[in-house]
UniProtKB/TrEMBL annotation:
Transmembrane segments: 25-44, 98-116, 128-149, 198-216
Gene3D superfamilies according to UniProt: Cation efflux protein transmembrane domain, Cation efflux protein, cytoplasmic domain
Family to which this protein belongs: Belongs to the cation diffusion facilitator (CDF) transporter (TC 2.A.4) family.
Keywords, alphabetical: Membrane, Transmembrane, Transmembrane helix, Transport
A Pfam family: ZT_dimer
Residue span(s) of domain Cation efflux protein cytoplasmic: 228-304
The Cation efflux protein transmembrane domain, residue ranges: 32-224
Protein name listed in UniProt: Ferrous-iron efflux pump FieF
Source taxon at top rank: Bacteria
Annotated PANTHER family: MITOCHONDRIAL METAL TRANSPORTER 1-RELATED (PTHR43840:SF15)
Gene that this sequence comes from: fieF_1
Amino acid sequence: MFFNFIVHRFIKDNSNVKDDKVRNAYGVIGGIVGILLNVILFIIKLSVGMIVSSIAIMADAFNNLSDAASSLITILGFKLSNKPADREHPFGHGRIEYLSALIVAFMVMLVGIQFIKSSFERIVNPTPVTFELVPFLLLFVSIFFKVWLSRFNKFMGEKINSAALKASSTDALGDVFTSTCVVISFLAAKFTTFPIDAYIGMIVALFIVYSGFNLVRDTINPLLGEAPDDELVNSITEMVTSYDNILGTHDLIIHNYGPGKCMASIHAEIPSDISVVAIHEIIDKAEREISKALRIYLVIHIDPICVIEGEVKSAYDEILSIIKKYDYIDSIHDFRVVGEGEVKNLIFDVVIEPSKVSPISDDELAKLISDGVKKYHPSYNCVITVDKHYT
């Protein structure tokens, strides 16, 4: 495949896609190819549009020019986001890639708004479009360029899991649709004097604005703190619980500092009677090995839990029976019994179901559970933290 030829020809150690330099090279090559093809298409379509006086063709031309600018900003984004961490940015500059994509999105929307105005003016004051065979064939061929570019960007984006390149692939595929509409309107000009060119120009312009809006949404989400990838979440929890004496996990939080740059923290439940030195060695090993394997920075917090047997198990089962009344509670964790004699503290966290909202405040929910426990054991005091999922 020609895509593989480009990769092998211009990217050294191209199979090591987790390496920052290799990933950066993929982004740069993808951007350069996008610039070259889109500039060629812009020149072709702008020339044709001016020759035949077609607002739809000129709108499509400037759409390609905005795509070229998008590719340029993508390259800059990859370059700048690969800068090493410094005192002001201890987790690096990876989010610059999102900011560069956001700039591109607003540029795309601006182009679309300008051509909405131009197309409306052409509807009000129609200008005849002259059909010519050679320009028609050039426009037809340009569609195949966009199909190829869409597949190329998808190939490169999947190789390095780049949202920017995948977005460029989708954008190029959308351009195939708009260019096809332009070609149809140009062909229709041969058979009718109706200003179909202006209406198609309006459709193309609206599509450009819509594409820009989708790009804005897709790039703002990670900046606002969208939920982490399920695959990464599952990998972290499964790997942590694979280590000896780690009985369970909770409170996994993942911070995204750019593509391939994540920091994660998780609470690991361990038996309360194990040696602190022994578990510290296990946790250190887990942090080191998982961070390296998943290319993240992982911090593991230790939560000692009581062995669930005897009196502790009885209290634990009572808590479970009480929280069943509240369908918005997902689970409990960090359960332990503290104290001597009859007076004891039951300390635990309750977790709210991610898809549901508690109809009462956290304090009111904690009191209801505590009152339920008092009915069984008046001498038990509950220390309850209402928690939620972060993944």
